[in-house]
From TrEMBL:
Family: Belongs to the TMTC family.
Enzyme Commission number(s) from the entry: 2.4.1.109
Signal peptide: none
GO function term, MF aspect, one: dolichyl-phosphate-mannose-protein mannosyltransferase activity
Protein name: dolichyl-phosphate-mannose--protein mannosyltransferase
Organism: Heliornis fulica
Tree of life domain: Eukaryota
Keyword terms, alphabetized: Endoplasmic reticulum, Membrane, Repeat, TPR repeat, Transferase, Transmembrane, Transmembrane helix
InterPro entries referenced in this protein's UniProt entry, alphabetically: O-mannosyl-transferase_TMTC, TMTC_DUF1736, TPR-like_helical_dom_sf, TPR_rpt
Originating gene: Tmtc4
Domain DUF1736: 311-383
Spans traversing the lipid bilayer: 39-57, 131-151, 163-182, 188-208, 220-237, 286-305, 372-391, 403-424, 430-449, 458-476
Positions annotated as TPR repeat: 499-532, 533-566, 601-634, 703-736
Taxonomic lineage of the native organism: Eukaryota, Metazoa, Chordata, Craniata, Vertebrata
GO cellular component terms, semicolon-separated: endoplasmic reticulum; membrane
Length: 758
């Protein structure tokens, strides 16, 4: 039995600032549920939340993880730590026109720590941290929901009381097992949302501590208010939504600490009532605290704006088609439809998808579209809840509904398209925090039903059933996030009209070498979105490799026509034109690619190949040198330089280039092989032999390595060793060019020597 303690020595006015009076109606009274001590409740929540997502611990890097982690140079030790504060989440400079302006340096820092401790890109450590973070957040939710549902009250010793142990446990369990959270937990990039939520909750709990009774008898602690602002800033440095906690703290202060009646206040303001001070607005400290919160928030936003730059992020129409609609009506209707879909994902998280863009949700362009019903249903529910939150005579109901709506709506505002364009249609990860509001409303609704129901245990069993179903759904969805193949294929049934889904399935198949199946999905992606230049580029690449050059050229030409600055497509078009022996056009395409991407080593490499085909040797060497300057580990460019210099008789220069290359890439067996050939021709047999043997050790099944070593021994006079390696080479590749002839010459020579010896 939990009892409410009161300190008779504290004046009545002061009690307002450090405790809630006993709640008008106890939510737990009519609820049939488990009553557990706080410690055990948290243990249960931690275990259940772990159970939901445990099977994601050994998953791969999937989807956005590649760009945010594997290809992000900010994770590597050689990148100065200071760069994290000037780069966006993906490792691009914030000043760049291509930057998405997603400023999350603390999240990137945790990725970097993961990388350094693991000694490389091993996903297990990344996944384990995400699971631990979600479990920690779920445990904190027990305290948060006990405050939001039961009110804020402290004992004489300053210990906070849990006035709603049953309902706070239900709400925390609902949060812990919600399937919509899978993207945040099982997808490593979701750590931004997890860290943001962690510091968001710590900021809220810190703000609540400001009203704990202290020895000096102050009404509130300025220290804890400032700590709350700092934690809010940290939350924002993990993800942009974090800043919204300051607004929620202000709402909580007004409703819970000051028991502000919003409707009554509005009426008095409207009638210029002189008794406003009795309405709670000017109660001691409220305006001061809200001023602290708002000025802190404004300062944080200004600093971020200065770091980020004044330019908005650059998004394309395929990212968020509604935001590019010319009609304000179309934009408004579709934004509201997106809100209704987000609400549906909270209510029924069965159809989940890693990406909702690119035709997954066709635009509503007319009021005759049946999907308007979803908007009407959303606003009918919202207006009903808002009316109850404002007009109900039950102050307890007003408080809980307002807090529920506040936690549902305020953290969602940065993703709402109201203040700036966002780069997605729907993103499951952005409703991680708003789901707190959903859990409050759901739990409150359950308590109201329990109050009316005669068979309360049936309701409890129903809620328990929802929790079990959600646990199973989380486990299933987590398993789908373990690999890209499962993740992408799971989206085909949810968003069959999404071109990006088909593109990603095709790319995954192509990476595994299944080009025929990949072509089918790439073609479908282009059919669904005729302006999908990345699908055209990848399809063109496969067709080029299959020697279907004319169709490849058509696709790549269309891609660069749609997006003239698409450097990769220009380079691939140049490769196709080179294969079609249209050398001037190929050269022009390569230079256009370099114009749009100044640091493009692969393009310089292909340009060098073109010049080599045209016998423009100096131009070829210069192009390959540029490639190695931009990318010192570009093995192919180094190799081609060595081979060209070797073939043109510049052995000394070829040797110098080979040695330079091996200093930079000491374990590259192809470079060892090329340099060994040059040294052999220069009659540096011993050094050449050592390099050949080292190359063979690294790649023992390369027939050419054994064949050329045999030639070296043949020249050197080590005929028995030459015979041995000729035979190994022919065993590995019976059709190796020249090897059979050289072997036959050697055998005849050995036979002649035997006859002379005989």
């Amino acid at each position: 039995q939990i009892c409410n303690q009161h300190n008779a020595e504290v004046p009545n006015l002061e009690q307002v600032f450090h405790r809630m009076a006993q709640t008008e109606s106890n939510l737990d009274h009519d609820v049939s549920w488990f009553l557990l001590p706080s410690y055990w409740a948290k243990m249960v929540v931690a275990f259940i939340s772990f159970l939901c997502f445990a099977n994601s611990y050994d998953g791969d890097f999937v989807f956005d993880d590649s760009e945010a982690i594997i290809n992000n140079k900010d994770l590597r030790a050689e990148t100065p730590l200071g760069d994290l504060w000037h780069h966006d989440f993906w490792g691009s400079k914030l000043s760049s026109n291509t930057s998405h302006k997603s400023y999350r340096p603390l999240t990137v820092l945790t990725f970097r720590i993961n990388y350094l401790f693991a000694g490389g890109f091993y996903p297990v450590g990344f996944h384990v941290i995400n699971i631990i973070l979600h479990c920690t957040i779920s445990v904190l939710m027990v305290d948060v929901f006990s405050i939001l549902l039961g009110g804020l009250q402290f004992t004489n010793k300053g210990r906070r009381l849990n006035l709603a142990p049953k309902t706070s446990l239900i709400a925390a369990l609902l949060f812990a097992v919600h399937p919509v959270h899978t993207e945040c937990v099982a997808g490593i990039v979701g750590r931004a949302d997890l860290l943001c939520a962690l510091f968001f909750l710590l900021s809220f709990l810190g703000y609540c501590k400001a009203f704990r009774e202290n020895k000096e008898g102050h009404n509130f602690s300025i220290f804890w208010v400032l700590v709350s602002v700092i934690l809010g800033a940290i939350a924002m440095l993990c993800k942009e939504q974090g800043i919204t906690v300051l607004g929620l703290n202000a709402v909580f202060d007004a409703l819970v600490i000051n028991k502000l009646n919003v409707l009554e206040l509005f009426q008095k303001l409207l009638h210029k009532d002189k008794s406003l001070e009795n309405a709670g607005l000017v109660r001691k400290g409220l305006l001061f605290r809200i001023t602290l919160l708002m000025s802190g928030g404004a300062t944080i936003l200004y600093i971020r704006w200065r770091i980020m730059g004044t330019g908005p992020p650059a998004f394309t129409e395929v990212d968020n088609p509604a935001s590019f609609a010319d009609s304000l009506f179309v934009r408004a209707i579709n934004y509201n439809y997106y809100y209704s879909l987000n609400a549906w994902l909270l209510l029924c998280p069965w159809w989940l998808c890693f990406d909702w863009s690119m035709g997954c949700i066709p635009l509503i362009k007319s009021v005759s579209d049946w999907r308007i019903i979803a908007l009407a249903a959303l606003w009918f529910c919202l207006i009903g809840l808002i009316c109850q939150a404002l007009c109900s005579e039950d102050s307890h109901k007003r408080r809980i509904l307002t807090l529920g709506l506040g936690f549902l709506i305020i953290p969602f505002l940065p993703a709402s398209n109201l203040f700036f364009r966002v780069g997605f249609v729907i993103a499951e990860r952005v409703i991680y925090l708003p789901s707190i509001g959903y859990c409050i409303l759901f739990t409150y609704g359950f308590s109201l039903l329990s109050k009316q129901a005669k068979k309360k245990k049936i309701l409890a069993v129903a809620v328990l059933g929802i929790l079990v179903i959600n646990i199973m759904r989380c486990a299933l969805r987590s398993s789908q996030w373990r690999s890209e193949e499962q993740l992408f294929r799971s989206a085909l049934s949810v968003c069959p009209l999404n071109a990006k889904v088909h593109y990603n399935v095709g790319k995954n198949l192509a990476d595994k070498g299944n080009q025929s199946a990949a072509i089918k999905y790439y073609r479908e992606a282009v059919r669904l979105n005729p302006k999908y230049v990345h699908a055209m580029n990848n399809l063109g690449n496969i067709l080029k490799e299959r020697n279907e050059l004319h169709e490849a050229e058509e696709l790549l030409s269309l891609a660069v026509q749609i997006q003239p600055d698409f450097a990769a497509a220009w380079m691939n078009l140049g490769i196709v034109q080179n294969s079609l022996r249209r050398f001037e056009e190929a050269e022009q395409s390569y230079w256009t690619a370099i114009k749009h991407r100044k640091k493009y080593p692969d393009c310089y490499y292909n340009l060098g190949r073109l010049y080599a085909d045209l016998n423009r040797h100096i131009d070829a060497l210069n192009a390959w040198r540029n490639a190695t300057v931009l990318k010192p580990e570009h093995s192919l460019a180094w190799n081609n330089m060595i081979i060209l210099l070797d073939n043109t008789g510049n052995l000394a220069q070829a040797e110098a280039v080979g040695r330079e290359a091996l200093e930079l890439i000491p374990n590259d067996h192809s470079l060892m092989f090329s340099l060994a050939n040059v040294l052999g021709k220069s009659q540096k047999y011993k050094e050449s032999e050592a390099l050949f043997l080292k190359a063979i050790k690294a790649n023992p099944n390369a027939a050419s390595y054994h064949g050329n070593l045999a030639v070296l021994y043949h020249r050197w006079g080590n005929l028995d060793l030459a015979k041995k390696h000729y035979e190994v080479s022919l065993k590995l590749d019976p059709m190796a060019p020249g090897t059979r002839e050289n072997y036959n010459l050697l055998r005849r020579k050995l036979e002649q020597l035997q006859r002379k010896g005989g």
